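Bumping with the actual sequence this time:
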Amino acid sequence: MNELNNAPGPSHQPSLGFDYFQSPKGSFWNWVEEGKVVEWKHGNTICYREDLAGSLRSLVAQGLPPLAPVLLLLAACADTWPDGSSGPAVLRSLVHHLPGGPKDPHVGISERQVSETLEFMDVVRGLPAGLRQGVAKAHLLQTIFSVQAPLVAPDMAGALLDDWSSGRLDSALRSAPGGQLLRRTFFNELDCLVQARRRFPTTEALALHLRTGLDKLPPPLPEAGRHLLGNLIAAVALHRHTRGNKAPQPLPDAPATIDLLDQLAQDARTAGLARLTRQLVAALRIPLHASRTGNQPIGGVADISNRGNFDRLLLSELAHDDLSLMARLVNNEALYLRREAPPQPEVQPRAVLLDTTLRMWGVPRVFALAAALAWARNSRQGRPPVPVAALALGGQQATPLDLETFDGVVAALERLDPAPHAGPALQDVGHHRPAPGDCLLITEAGLLHQPEFARALAEAGPMLRFLLTVDRSGELQFYEYQNGHRTLASTTRYDLAELLFAAVVVPRRPLLRQIAADGPAFWQYAPAPLYLPVTGLRMSIKNTFYVPQIGVLAIVDTRRVLFWPDKSFGARELLPQIEAGSYWFGSDGQQEVYVLVSGPQLLRVYAFSADIEATMMDLSAELKMGEAPAGVVFKDQCYYVPQPDGVLVFDCEQWRKSDSRNFTVPTATPSGFRPDFGHIKRHVNNGYTVLQRVNRLEVNGLGELVIEGHELRLISHSASLHHGLHLMSITTGQQATYRTKATLDHTLPLAANEQVLLRHFRWPDGSTAVADTRGLLHLRSADASVPELAVLLILGKPTAAWAADGTVCGPDYFTGPDPVRRLPPQEFQQQYLQRFIAHLG
């Protein structure tokens, strides 16, 4: 065992069970009622002894994790979490009260560890009762701790629980004090829950894994992904079976590999090949070997048994009278003949010889490769599976092919030989290589009438079992060799234009925002909890675009992409940073705004939807000579990008690059947008300014927060009897006394956008503040019971604020029309801001 720090007092002989079950000094839990109940320190019940014992028993096979995270998960599974316990406050306070050491993590890192632990407990609490209570609770624990290295090995876990269940440790656990809990140990104990939170960030993700064993459902494609669907059905069936048992076992993980045809279908270059291959898999049938009568020793007698069918009775049994025969049959005394089982069919390896010479170039080459893939797939999926080797026939020699990997198939598509036919290579295979059981040759249909190739084919006849011919019209002919003679077995015709060249719609994948785990809590949410103020926008047709049905989209000086769907509310940040370059705007007029970014070695298209989602397609590899394109035109939902040798066309509706061989750049249609119009400016700003640069933070003698010479003050409006938080500038010459000041610790650029600066301040009591040049101030108190706060630095208008528990205050312009929890400004100031300021001293 490692990290067991709960060493007992000197009066007790150390034992494994004592070390594991003793509550250490300073921990969040302790035993009460003579060891029958586990309780929060200064709080309510966590769980009963019987519940804890059953949960630990379910983990014996994989080893026991530390006891602390098990107790936290049991608390999260209860219906009373978090309202019916003092758990969140107790956990947050531990970080500041536990003794530390030189190798301990920083207090801020430990605070974040506790916050992520509480977030994961909320994820668990959000599960339906059927997934976190009763028998399902064991499955939940097994899933969460499956990737955790056990603290107690499986071979010792059972003995430890038996020792504790016997009651021999109870008196020692009540009387002997535990060792002091260290901050490092507490940090390590919570690590498995933090890792689980990153693995299952939402309740839906955790519920999906518990129900199916999958972390992500396969995409709903019409053909691709059938094998994944089969695995999903099998996982659901296994889970339903498991739920009926008293001790459910963890479900197997999702398969790590992707089917070859699915990989081909997801790539635009090979999607047509995958479609044609699937058609051929269903159509090609490999004939079975026929055996002559009497060749196999089938039908003989292998044994005599007392089990069998009546037609297998020994003739001597019929010599008994009726009653005796009936008695022998009932008592299983009658004797039967047991037939000899037929031998297992011999697995004969197969080979595919793929012609790659001149007549196979173009469409026949793809057609032939699809047939080879279908043949290999049917062989591997047969009963029993048959190994398949593939060879590419050039003009003089044969080279191996890989038809089992994506890269191998792409390489096979690139194989070309300028020889007129593959006759010499076919003869070389027949002369120098041992012939496999079943050999298939795939070639072009017209070559059967070419004299030289026909002679080579006739000489190789004894080696071949099957022949398959293709042509450009889509006709496939399948021949079988019997006793040296070739017989046509079937003819099929395919619409190659439809199968190979149908438009491929690439599924869109929304951009995932990178969130810094140690950043302000406000930016851990997408979208942000408050509508944002605008900063650094010098409006022009080069950075701003307006669609009446959608709203205004703008790229500010720091290259943030902001979006205003309605002039009654502030901005949403769609991207923290977009690439530098020229911006070309477009829209479908209803739901989406498109931005093409062009520059040297850069060409990307973004789609921003009205539901605050961003999608990107990188076309940089399509640029010729790496030069920045000029004169880009957007028309009919397509971007036309001039190139030195033509036009690159990107269809935003289909989200794919179009064939641009016959395109010319159309005449641009003026958008009619003039960003200098007053109503557009009022759409993005209702008359406020933003305090962007903060170098000083103080608390004045009245107990008000002073930000760069502006007091955050509650102002009453006598006409409406409403209150509002305002940043009021201190007039020149006004005497101010300060109770405490914050020290500027350091300034760091934002990881996602180096043009955005974060100024970190520290107060004497250990509280911190982060001034964000995007117009926010983030406050984190040294008192763990005070949630993290964010205040918009708005001048000239009432401002808004947010607390990490979801509470907001301020005007609808920044909070939205219907926030989950809103408080009047005076109550928000009293419950949150004043508590933060009071702890500063």
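The tokens above came from a reply further down the thread. The radius of gyration is 37 Å.
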